[in-house]
């Protein structure tokens, strides 16, 4: 009869991770879509590289920051698979 209620913080976390997943998942694969990112001063970056997308995102939640750092580390160590590893982490967190 009793339902678990999520706290506001948990819902914000879930929304932020789902938003990140939606941004990067369409750039995955051989027909991945390019993303156009504009920073605060108006510089435009067009890419479909998951590491670049996650590096340029401005995230607030600590877990989302860890996700972006994971993608950066994956890019530095292996050089590929950043989008897949980010989506994998989002799915299991």
Strand content is 5-15%
Distance between the termini: 26 Å
Q: Which structural category do the helix and sheet elements fall into? A: mainly alpha
Helical run tally: 4
Number of strands: 2
Instruction: Average the pLDDT over all residues and give the rounded result.
Output: 86
H/E element string?
HEEHHH
Sheet of most strands:
2 strands, antiparallel
User: How do the strands line up in the largest sheet?
Assistant: 1-2
> What's the overall geometry?
globular
Tally the structural domains.
1
Percent helix among the residues?
55-70%
| Radius of gyration over C-alpha positions, nearest whole angstrom | 15 Å
Low-confidence stretches: none
Family: Belongs to the TCP-1 chaperonin family.
Protein name: T-complex protein 1 subunit alpha
GO cellular component, one term: cytoplasm
GO molecular function: ATP binding; ATP hydrolysis activity; ATP-dependent protein folding chaperone; unfolded protein binding
Folded structure, characterized:
- This protein has 93 residues and is mainly alpha-helical.
- The chain has one domain.
- Helices cover 56% and strands 9% of the residues.
- The chain contains four helices and two strands.
- It has a two-stranded antiparallel sheet.
- A hairpin with a 5-residue loop joins strand 1 (35-38) and strand 2 (44-47).
- The longest helix is centred in the N-terminal third of the chain and has 18 residues, at 8-25.
- It is globular and about 40 Å long.
- It starts with 7 loop residues before the first helix and ends with a helix.
- The relative contact order is 0.18.
- The model has no long low-confidence stretch (mean pLDDT 86).
């Amino acid at each position: 009869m009793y339902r678990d209620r999520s706290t506001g913080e948990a819902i914000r976390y879930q929304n932020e991770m789902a938003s990140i997943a939606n941004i990067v998942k369409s750039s995955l694969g051989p027909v991945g879509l390019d993303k156009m990112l504009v920073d605060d001063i108006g510089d435009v970056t067009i890419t479909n590289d998951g590491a670049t997308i996650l590096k340029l995102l401005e995230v607030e939640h600590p877990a989302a920051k860890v996700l972006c750092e994971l993608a950066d580390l994956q890019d530095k160590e292996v050089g590929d698979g950043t989008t897949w590893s980010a989506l994998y982490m989002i799915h299991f967190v």
